[in-house]
Amino acid sequence: MNTQPQNKPATILVTGGSGYIGSHTIVSLIEAGHSVVSIDNLSKSTGRLNDGIAQITGHDVDFHEIDASDEDALNALFSQYSFDAVIHFAAYKAIDESTKKPLDYYDNNLGSLTTLCRVMRAHDVSQLIFSSSATVYGDQNTACVETMDIQPAMSPYGWTKIFCEQILRDLSASDPDFWNITLLRYFNPVGNHPSGLIGEDSPDVPANLVPYITKVAIGELESLTVFGDSYDTVDGTCVRDYIHVTDLAEGHIAALTQADPGIHTYNLSSGRGTTVLQAIKGFESATGQTVTYTIGHKRDGDTPYSCGSAKKAEQELGWKAQRTFTEAMRDQWKWQQNQ
Ligand code: WQD
Questions:
Q1: Greatest Cα-to-Cα distance within the chain, rounded to the nearest angstrom
Q2: Mind giving me the DSSP string for 64-108?
Q3: What is the C-alpha to C-alpha distance for residues 217 and 291, in angstroms, rounded to an integer?
Q4: Distance between CA atoms of 310 and 321, rounded to whole angstroms?
């Protein structure tokens, strides 16, 4: 396995750079010595994380308010810079919203990817790292590995990830000597940069567990509803693989070293399974805070168990999650206190 071009400083385009994972990845890219250009249409974020990135790294972000579906704007950008690789985060990701606005999700998530790929090809930029999701594995009762068959999605959001992966497999097969595509399947990103200066920037009530926990702990929300405690797990609540977002970001830096043409798929996971009740207790012991919760009904579409093996990323990219769930809870609490 060759690992070379992006071992040396490179110029990387990050789409969706004003989001939670995008902003953390930009910090890690800058700390790894890369030059970064960030675009975002600010439809789901305010852009304020750019200030946090600058404070953490000492570098102002080269940010452009551009929609990744805007072919003319992307062409102009690719004419202005000589990108060595692209990391594509820009997509809608709220499962519940996707069931209410499926056309918006298909237009945006698929349209931005195909537009970006057209512009990359036109400007001879061959390395793409794509933000995929463990959601493509569907319901599994064992740790997911990359060779598992993709399962039918439970939401339009999930289908967009499945369709985008297929688009990229077809694109790679159409021009195998050109494209170098990496699909990164995230499990459950949590935590924040330890500075507490960047994090989830959405004004909406969080759908995800840990941001909801921190808002209950700080008193912004009254109580957490645990979506069911009658699953076939150690305490009846769902098991997830929570990975510190900075570990996830560093997984993208490692993926840049993948130099072989073709299409490569890797899980980015911690390999640890944590139930909802264990997550609540873990947050409380990490922060000394109390989380008020009640047991409610199961949430449609929830799978009882979703954990991943990251052995392939460790063997081929030399990447392994380093941070603990406790660190992630402490870091996320610090971000919440700064809001
Ligand atoms: C985790 C557990 C809930 C909120 C989703 C996407 C996935 C990825 C991560 C993008 C579940 C329970 C939650 C609450 C609860 N996103 N929960 N009360 O659903 O595993 O994954 O986000 O890639 O694709 O599917 O994450 O944080 O919503 O839920 O009991 O108020 O917490 O039932 O068991 P999920 P989550």
A1: 56
A2: EE--TT-HHHHHHHHHHS--SEEEE--S---HHHHHH-HHHHIII
A3: 5
A4: 9
Q: Is it the case that residue 121 has pLDDT exceeding 70? A: yes
Does residue 157 have an active-site annotation? yes
- pLDDT greater than 60 at residue 4: no
Residues in the chain: 339
Query: Does ligand 1 lie within 6 Å of residue 221's CB atom?
Result: no
With a 6 Å cutoff on the Cβ, whether 229 touches ligand 1 is no
Helix, strand, coil proportions of the chain in percent (round to 5)?
40, 20, 40
Separation between Cα atoms, residue 229 and residue 238, nearest integer Å: 8
Q: What's the chain's Rg over C-alpha atoms?
A: 19
Average pLDDT over residues 210-229: 97
Cα of 55 from ligand 1 centre, angstroms: 30
Tokens for 254, please give them: 């490692």
Q: pLDDT digits over 23-60, tens only?
A: 999 999 999 999 999 999 999 888 899 999 999 999 99
Q: Is the Cβ atom of 212 under 6 angstroms away from ligand 1?
A: yes
Q: Residue 229 Cα, ligand 1 centroid: separation in angstroms?
A: 14
Task: Please give the average per-residue pLDDT across 144-169, as a whole number.
Answer: 97
Q: Which atom of ligand 1 is nearest to the CA of 135?
A: 24
Nearest atom in ligand 1 to the alpha carbon of residue 279 is 32
CA of 303, closest atom in ligand 1: 34
What SS3 class is residue 114? helix
pLDDT value, residue 20:
95
- Whole-number Cα distances in Å, 43 to 39, 68, 90: 12, 12, 10
191 neighbors 244 (Cβ within 8 angstroms) = yes
pTM: 0.96
Catalytic entry in 157, 231, 242, 305: 157
Phi, psi of 197 (to 5 degrees): -100, -10
